[in-house]
Every structure is written in C-alpha cells, then in structure tokens.
C-alpha cells in the first residue's frame, strides 16, 4: 500500500503535535471514518506545554482523547534548537532521529492498542532526511522487522505543502486558532523558528486568495 493510500475503517495511531499539519491529518482521517488513537509525544521540546494544550483542544474538537507519552529526557540528552533555549532555534532545528523515534513509539503504542497503522503528518519539500518518502518506507520495513509483524506507516499529506494544508484547514473549518506551530516556549508565535517562518510565508501567499 502506498504511503498515502487508505482502506476503509482502519484503526490508526496518529502522531499529534497540536500543529496544523497533524491536526488536519487527524481531521481528514476521522472524516473518512477511521478510528483514531491520537498520540502526543513529550520529547523535551521547548514548546511541549503549549503544544499539549493545542493537541488536547484539537482532539476534543474532534471528539477524541489524546494520550501523552513522556520521553522528555531525550531532548535534554540530544539537545537541539527546539529542545534547548541556548541553541539557535532556527539553525539548530534538526533533532537527530526524531521522526524515527516518533514512528517507533507510535508502533509500540499501537501494539498496546492492537493498532498496526501509524500516521505521520510530514509534508512535501522535506528539509530534513527523516521527512522523505524513502525514509517513511524504510522506517516501515525496519519497525515491522523489529516487531516481527507488519505495520503500515501512512503519510497522507506527503504530496502537499504548507499552503495546501492551510487551504484545506480553512476549507473544512478546522479551528486554526487552536493550533500551535511555533517551536519556542513563548505564548505567542516567535516568528523566527522554521515552523513560524513556513507558516507566515504560506499565510502571506494565501492572503490574496478568496475562500
Ligand atoms: Zn516560532
């Protein structure tokens, strides 16, 4: 099965961060009638508490209850700009093995819930090596071997960019004000991290489009 294909009525662990992409993905999968198990991972990110509030609010909006998994020591052991306020939030944004870890933990949580499908909200135009279609396929193979049972990793947004996800979010009435896209710990979006810059650029581009 290709990483953007789906069958009917699947049980899916969704990696949910409270951001636009994962929230839209969760919304679309729920709308298609799948049973969703939202998983929020606290890996020691600076933004974890505001992300968790956004994740809970978005999940409740969709009638779902997220589970919070705590591996906060990881971000302290492997510091990056998104886990350590002393590092540059933009230049040091890469956190090694983050998405592989997310998918592995998603599969482990799925094992507990008898779910073998994990959805991750990565988009087109990858910045990091763990955001590519090749990576998703390789992770699916590796984690399946590690479990001794086949899992499916789906990345349903992988052909979309940030403009597309914002368009879809607006089209379907996803409450964007509940989402949190900034990597910093500040209450308001910092405007400097890669996530803020990506969202601001997409919003500026879409500002002239009619909805
Ligand atoms: Zn930011």
Please give a handful of descriptors for the protein shown.
211 residues; alpha/beta; Rossmann fold; 5-stranded parallel beta sheet; 5 strands; binds zinc ion
Low-confidence stretches: none
- SS elements, strand count: 5
Encode the helix/strand succession as letters: EHEHEHHEHEHH
- Overall spatial form: globular
Number of helices: 7
- CATH top level is Alpha Beta
Structural class: alpha/beta
- Helical fraction equals 40-55%
The figure for the number of domains is 1
What is the makeup of the main sheet? 5 strands, parallel
CATH topology: Rossmann fold
Instruction: Let me know the average pLDDT.
Output: 94
CATH 4th-level superfamily: HUPs
Strand content: 5-15%
**Ligands (ions, cofactors included):** zinc ion
Radius of gyration: 16 Å
Cross-sheet strand order for the largest sheet = 3-2-1-4-5
Structural features, described:
With 211 residues, the chain is of the alpha/beta class. The chain has a single domain (11-209), classed as HUPs (Rossmann fold). It is built from seven helices and five strands, in the order βαβαβααβαβαα. The chain has helices at 20-31, 48-61, 73-77, 98-113, 133-147, 162-171, 194-206; strands at 11-15, 35-42, 67-70, 117-119, 152-154. Strands 3-2-1-4-5 form a five-stranded parallel beta sheet, sandwiched between helices. The mean pLDDT is 94. It binds zinc ion (ZN).
Compact description:
By secondary structure, this protein is an alpha/beta fold.
Outline the secondary-structure elements.
Layout: E1 11-15, H1 20-31, E2 35-42, H2 48-61, E3 67-70, H3 73-77, H4 98-113, E4 117-119, H5 133-147, E5 152-154, H6 162-171, H7 194-206
Parallel strand pairs: 1-2, 1-4, 2-3, 4-5
Bound molecules: zinc ion.
